[in-house]
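--- STAGE predict ---
source: upstream dedup step, 1 unique chain passed
mode: sequence only
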Amino acid sequence: MFMKQRYFSAKKIAVLAIFTALSLITFLIENLFPPLLLPGAKLGLSNTFSFAALVIYSPVEAFIIVGIRTLLGAVFAGNISAVMYSFTGGMVSMAVSSLLIYLVFPKLSIIAVSIVAAVFHNLTQCTVYVLITSTPSLFVYAPYLMLIGIASGAFIGGVVWIIFRRVPVSVFENALGVKHSAAREHSPLPSETAEKAALPAENPSDLKTADGTDKPLGTD
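--- STAGE serialize ---
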C-alpha cells in the first residue's frame, strides 16, 4: 500500500475529483449496456477507481468516491430507487476490501481482495432486494451473482494491479506528495520487486527510459 495521508490537501482533492469523475463516467457508460445474465447485473467497472483510491490513500477516500458516485450515478441515470442497492453494496464491499487490505494483504493479492469484495457487493445487493420485496426465493440467484462477482473482481483487481505495475512512479509521487523511495516502499508490488525498487539509484538516469521518461513501477 502507499503512504496514507490524514489530511485533504488541494492536490489530494483534485486527484479524488478525477477518480470520482472517471468512476461516474464509467458507471453511466456501463449503464447503457444490457445486464449480464440477470436483471440489473453489471460488472461494476466503476469500482476500479474507488479500489485504486483505497490502495493509494486509505478507506476514507475510497468511501467518499463510492458515496458520491452512487448518489450522482442514480441522479444522472434517472433511477433514484437504485441508490439503496448500489450504495449499500458499494459500502459493504469497500468495508470488506479495507479489512482485507489492512489485515491480510499482501498474503492475499490485490486481485483476490477485489474478487472477495465484488462477491460481497453482489450478495449484499441481492439481500437488500430480498428484504425490500420480501421474496426470499430470489436467493436462488446468489450462485450466479457470485460468479459475476468473481469475474468482475478479477477484472477490476487486474486493472488496478496493471496500473501500479506500469504507471511511472512519479505519478504516484505527485498524487501522494512523497519522495521516490517512500512511494516505492509503500507500493503494492511483490516484496522482492518492491525491495529492489526501493534501493536508491546510483545515477538519476537509472530512473529514466531511453526517451527520458520515468520508468514504470516494477521495471528494471
